[in-house]
Amino acid sequence: MATYLVTHEVDDVAHWLSSTKRQDVFGPMGITTRAFHDLNGSNRVGLIVEIPDLAAFQEFMQTAEAAAAMQHDGVRPETMLMLAEG
Questions:
Q1: Looking at the domain covering 2-84, what would its CATH class be?
Q2: Spatial contact of 70 and 12, defined as CB atoms under 8 Å apart
Q3: What is the pLDDT along the chain (86 residues), one digit of tens a residue?
Q4: Distance (Å, rounded) from C-alpha 17 to C-alpha 60?
């Protein structure tokens, strides 16, 4: 299992934080997340993500289901940055 830091902007931070969509789509893949938000009030948010199979995750992120989940949560995909641990 590898750990990643993912940051991106969202349309509505409160909605993004309260959404269960991440768990709905990532949970069945064995992926866990911890959500963070900017204390200064910007729309920048972050996740610490534990991913057991990076290739499966990357493949999933190219699907219509992933796009719909991001749209539901107001994620701005063009702002996404994923950092690997170490």
A1: alpha beta
A2: no
A3: 899 999 999 999 999 999 999 999 999 999 999 999 999 999 999 999 999 999 999 999 999 999 999 999 999 999 999 999 88
A4: 22
Distance CA 48, CA 33 (A): 6
User: With the CA atoms of 61, 8, 36 and 75 taken in that order, what torsion angle do they form, in degrees rounded to the nearest 10?
Assistant: -60
pTM: 0.91
Residue spans of the domains in the chain: they are 2-84
Amino acid at 13: V
CA 10 to mean position of chain CA atoms: 10
DSSP code per residue over 2-60: EEEEEEEEES-HHHHHH--HHHHHHGGGT-EEEEEE-TT--SEEEEEEEES-HHHHHHH
What letter would DSSP give residue 74?
T
pLDDT at 51: 97
